Each structure stands twice: as structure tokens, then as C-alpha cells.
Amino acid sequence: MEYLIGIDIGTSGVKAIIIDNTGRVISSRIESYDIKVIKKGWMEQDPEEWWNGTKKAVSEVIKEGAINKDEIKAISFTGQMHSSVFLDENNSVLRPAILWNDTRTSKQCKEIYDTVGGLDQLLNYVSNSALEGFTAPKILWLRENEKQNYEKLECVLLPKDYIRYKFAGDIGTEMSDAAGTLLYDVKNKKWNKELIKKLNLKDNIFPKVVKSTDVVGKINKEVAKELGLNEETLIVAGGADNACAAIGSGIVENSKAALSIGTSGTIVAYTDKNDIKTKGNLHFFNHACNSSWYIMTVMLSAGMCFKWLKKNILKTDKSYDELTNMASEALPGSNGVIFVPYLFGERSPHPDPNAKSMFYGLSSNTTDKDLIRSVLEGVSLGFKDCLVSIENSVDIEEIRITGGGANSQLWTSIMADVLNREISLINIQEGPAFGAAIIAGVGSGVFKNFKSILDKSVKVIKTVKPNKENAKLYEKYYKIYTLLYDNLKECSNLLS
Ligand SMILES: Nc1ncnc2c1ncn2[C@@H]1O[C@H](COP(=O)(O)OP(=O)(O)O)[C@@H](O)[C@H]1O
Ligand SMILES: O=C(CO)[C@@H](O)[C@H](O)COP(=O)(O)O
User: Fold this and answer.
1) 25 contacts 7 by C-beta, under 8 angstroms
2) Is residue 458 part of a domain?
3) What's the domain count of the chain?
4) GO biological process annotations for this chain's record (predicted)?
């Protein structure tokens, strides 16, 4: 038997999983860590914590899997996108990593637009708009605020590439993570030297870019010894977490999309075309398979809204299942209440840090059941807003739902009704780590290609059809939902 390890450097922890050469998950382990909130909007993590977490998670997952370590053929990596690891000439970390959800760089985003001459020009360069979370504004921030660190800066890496460096000693990245830096020419697959020059950034700090499935070396002898792994274990480049989550859901051909109700909410749609026009309200990144691309929307708070309602408003110890049972007793439409989910501002389809969340339509008859249902409906309306934008660029025939929210029958049926689309549930809920293990398998030759192994291992286990009557009601709610953002934009700006 041959085995493969996938490692996901997530925001709340590192997850390691082992799969076998049929794509079956053998064991899975998470080691959690925290985000350091330095001050409002400043989010950091120490790469050393990722590394310690990784070593623990890998040791444990091997123990739990009870497999012969010599049969582990390859390891690959995935992780949070955009977060910056700054290295000096000795490849030592210069300062804690600035994370993808850090918003300290609004000034630098404006500088990027001013320097290149606006959104259209930036889209011509890198196919994406300047968002605070992306890597480029973080490098500009370092240059302006920590001059000494910028002077010592020799390389910028993404989180999973730093961990890959610790495993193999190889400094580099691959296309799907390079795409999220805002300095990579996504269409033509190379660093955009012209943009790097315009921004007057050092041009030697961007590492070589390989394909996700490239074998970048063998495991470093000391790490092999420490983790008890065979020195012949291959290290495969890997991919960004959203690309790997898409692979792990079988999104490897046109007209398929994955919709994830996690802490944030994403829709990722596959495309083999490099000329997608997005107006900057969608992300357009390189995929980690088939030399393709994907279009993505990101809602900053999706499942987060439900967690917030449970903890901050209802202040209850009831489980999510108990709460959704309560919500199922409220009628569709939540007794006239519409929830707008912009708890952290929003990214898609409105890149607007000032966007505000609200319950609209509260009355003296509103119950806690209505509030819970309205949160599930409001988050689903946010997904509808994203889907409408994506479908202006590509056609989607199949939507596969994943993430914690997909555990709820009620939420998935509300989603089907709001989107007025059939939704598929799949057997794999391992997320990006599973995609990384698949990449390890394709890269090391254990699997022939992505499609053949994913057709075998990722199966649709259920389809949820929309209820026509509810869909009609939610069509009306969607109209009101979009009007709420458009009409209250000025008030939201005034309140910010
Ligand atoms: N049984 C459930 N019913 C409804 N929602 C759930 C359930 N379990 C988890 N969730 C939702 O999923 C969210 C967590 O999603 P998950 O994909 O596990 O998180 P992350 O994106 O942080 O990895 C929770 O905040 C909650 O909103
Ligand atoms: O910013 C993005 C994508 O553009 C996020 O999806 C990050 O990639 C973080 O992912 P998690 O660790 O929260 O899953």
C-alpha cells in the first residue's frame, strides 16, 4: 500500500491527513493555535507556531493511522492564502506573519491604485483588485513602517511554502499561491515585473514559481529523523487553500463549483479560460490542477454570523443542531425579518470595509426562532448575491456544498431555495488537506491524474432540490436584500 500526507496551514490550526492509494482517508488530526490580535484589524501569527503545530499534527496523524511509515510516498501542502512570511538572507523569519484577514493596509491599497492608474490598469496587470488582505500591500506597509525589516528582506513566502521550506529546504512557491499576492500575472503565469517595478519593490524578493504537482525534493534528513519518516519521502509543491478545497470537492472541470459555509463563505468555480473579465468584484486565481483557473467570491462572515448569534446574542450553550431545530419551527421568510451578514464589512460581491450588518424588519412579534432562521436565510442571500456575480462570468451547472454549515439539513435546503438551484452534498468533508494529499499523489505518480482519482473518491451522496413556493418568496427577499445594501451605503459610510 502507498500513503500520502496532506498538510493544511489554516488560520485556526494546522490539519494533517493521511490518504491511501485509493483516495480513502485513513486518519486526520488538527493542532490548534490562535491569531494574535495586535490591535483592531492587525492580525498576526508566528510561523514557528505553524511549524511546531505541523510537527505535532504529522506525528499524531501517523500514530493514529497505524501505518508503515516507509509506505508514505509523498507529502504536500496547502494553507491560508495571502499571509506574508518575510525572510532575511539566512531564511530566518524577520517578524510575525501578517495574515490574510489583517486590514492595516488600506492606505497601501490606495497607493497601489494611484501608482498604476486605477482599477482597470491593475486588472490588466494581475486580474484582481487591491484588497487589504493580499500580500502586495503588506510588503508596501513593511517598507513604510518597518524600514529596517524591509532592508533585510530577501524573500516573501506564503505560509504553506514556509512549511514546505522547513520540510525540504527548497525556497519557492507555486502558481495558485503566487496568484493571491497581487503581483502575479494570473493570465500569463509569471511575476508581473512591470508592476513590481512601478511599485518600486525589490525585484529579487519573489521566489521561483513551480507547478503545484512538481516534486521539489526529498524530505530533509533531520526532519525525517525527528518525525520518524523515511528519507526517500517526496515533497510536492502543493496549492492555496481554496484551490485545494476545490480539488478536494472534485471541482476540476468546467461548469462545476463548490460553495462552502465555513467561518467565511466562498464560492469557487472552475474555468479553463484565462480571459475572464471580473470588474474587480471577483477573485480570479490560478488553480492547482490542469493548468487552469478559478473564479472565487469570499463572504467575510458566513458561518461566523451563526456563531455570533449563538454566542453574543442568544448567549446559549445549545448546539448548532438544537438551534437549527428551533429555526425549522419558524416559517420561511422569518416573520418578515431579513438579516444582512456584513459583520466584518464585505469582500464579495461588494469589496466594502464599511458595509454594515443588520436585522431589518424586526417587530414586537419577532421570536428567537425567527432570528435564527433569518441568519440562515440572510447568509444564503449573501451567497445568492455572489453566485449572480460569478454567473456573469461563467456558467455553473453543478454546485457542491461543503463547510460546517453543510451539516445542517435546514441550512442546505434554505440555500437550495434561496439560490433556486439543486445542490449536491458530497462524501468528503476534509477540505483543503484532502486536496493537498491528492496533489501529493498526482505529483509523485501514485495517481495518474486528478480526474481519475477524484471520480473514484469524491461522490455525490445526496442532492437537495429547491421548493418552488419558497424560491418565489426568496426571490422577493433577494430584491429587498440588495436594496438594503444599495440604499444604506451612505449611512454605512457615515457610521464608519
Ligand atoms: N451542525 C451545524 N449546523 C449548522 N451550522 C453549523 C453546524 N456545524 C457548524 N456549523 C457552522 O459552520 C461554521 C464552522 O464551519 P467550518 O467549516 O467548520 O469552519 P472553518 O471555516 O473555520 O474551518 C460554524 O461557525 C457554524 O456557523
Ligand atoms: O483570504 C482568503 C482567500 O482569498 C481566505 O480563504 C484564506 O485563504 C484563509 O483561509 P482559512 O484558513 O480561514 O480557511
Assistant:
1) no
2) no
3) 2
4) D-xylose metabolic process; xylulose catabolic process
